[in-house]
Design goal:
Layout: E1 12-13, H1 17-24, H2 29-55, E2 72-76, E3 86-90, H3 99-119, E4 131-135, E5 144-146, E6 151-153, H4 168-181, H5 190-212, E7 222-223, E8 238-239, E9 248-249, E10 253-254, H6 270-273, H7 279-292, H8 300-309, H9 319-334, H10 338-349
Parallel strand pairs: 2-4, 4-6
Antiparallel strand pairs: 1-5, 2-3, 5-6, 7-8, 9-10
Helix pairs in contact: 1-2, 3-4, 4-5, 5-7, 7-10, 8-9, 9-10
Length: 355
């Protein structure tokens, strides 16, 4: 059994460090400068997260809202780094002139709606936690992150990355880190860290598909589509359908994600390759969901959600541990039907053993 007392929030970004490292080495200072400043800011925020974990996160104010209703607040950092910044849109407020604020507000709502309608979960902690976002963070900041308490979005540098509120799955991805934080609390290193990242990609994709009313067959299965600037040769940050094909650019390099265990990457960087090897469980989910067809959040998504929240997933789980639990869960919820076969075959195709 996983112990979930005293969960440890981690600092999770949508753009992997290896991408920013590559950018920081670019010969053009217009590209390298924002990447270097983003890496420095990320390092600072990561340290702050560790300190907050030791000291204790600030208490969340009690809610007056009814259970099962969202409580959103969007703040504007004004291109500074103080969090949360100036509150600019509260729950129930009409849309304003700032499209970034409106997209953040809508993305928080879409995440809340999927969790509640598909899985009966009241916000990311299951108990109505307020959803807080900050936009216009820093200058030319090339990332978005979950810091254990709230979402933060940069505007991008306009050269490589655009506004980080543009893809709704980026918003969903980062908020899903909050769900993991309050449930399985997967260690952010090695295979458990790659599972942490993959779960966020899965639910980010599901939030996008749910908001668009897409079936598994209609979805593009891209994470961060629309985030890359026109000069970049690529379509997104990651592809769940074809890991390793999201971009192949002279500045960014080539997408390093493997699709199967045959190409598993062993590295000490990026917390043991959490943003790289997540391609393997990502692809397994894609295979299961597309084999089953229909809306991916209904069966494949339900199985993944059950594993994440069921209490049996260890914090240091390996791929095979997670895969085994998805098979067990598919059997328990759906019996000996096509769901069990689809999940079992998906893991087999990516080379992850189930016990």
């Amino acid at each position: 059994m996983t112990h979930h007392g005293g969960f440890e929030p981690v600092f999770c970004t949508i753009v992997p460090p290896h991408v920013l490292d590559r950018l920081a080495q670019a010969g053009d200072p217009v590209l390298a400068g924002p990447a270097r400043r983003t890496l420095q800011r990320d390092a600072y925020e990561r340290t702050q997260r560790r300190l907050t974990t030791v000291v204790g996160a600030r208490a969340v104010a009690p809610l007056a809202a009814e259970p099962g209703t969202p409580h959103r607040t969007v703040h504007d950092a004004g291109h500074g780094t103080g969090l949360p910044g100036r509150a600019v849109r509260a729950e129930g407020d009409e849309p304003g002139q700032d499209a970034t604020v409106n997209r953040a507000y809508a993305g928080l709502g879409a995440t809340f709606e999927l969790l509640l309608s598909a899985y009966g979960r009241d916000s990311i902690d299951g108990a109505g936690m307020p959803l807080v976002a900050t936009v216009h963070y820093d200058r030319d900041y090339n990332n978005a992150f979950w810091n254990g308490e709230q979402m933060v979005f940069g505007d991008g540098d306009g050269e490589i990355f655009l506004d980080f509120t543009l893809p709704i799955d980026v918003i969903g991805h980062e908020l899903a880190h909050g769900v993991t934080q309050h449930t399985a609390n997967l260690d952010y290193f090695g295979q458990s860290g790659a599972l942490n990242e993959s779960v966020s990609d899965v639910f980010g994709a599901l939030i996008k598909q749910y908001s668009l009313g897409q079936t598994a067959a209609e979805a593009d299965w891209l994470i961060g589509a629309g985030l890359l600037a026109p000069r970049v040769t690529g379509t997104a940050l990651r592809s769940m359908k074809e890991p390793g094909t999201a971009y192949d650019d002279d500045v960014l390099g080539k997408d390093p994600q493997p699709a199967t265990m045959d190409d598993y990457v062993r590295t000490g960087r990026d917390n043991g390759g959490v943003h790289i090897n997540s391609g393997i469980p990502n692809h397994a989910f894609y295979l299961a969901a597309t084999t089953l067809g229909g809306h991916a959040w209904e069966r494949a998504g339900q199985i993944w959600y059950d594993v994440l929240t069921g209490g049996e997933l260890r914090q240091d789980a390996l791929f095979t541990d997670f895969a085994t639990l998805t098979v067990k869960t598919a059997r328990a919820r759906f019996g000996q039907g096509e769901e069990l076969l689809a999940v079992t075959k998906a893991w087999e195709r990516v080379g992850v053993r189930t016990l």
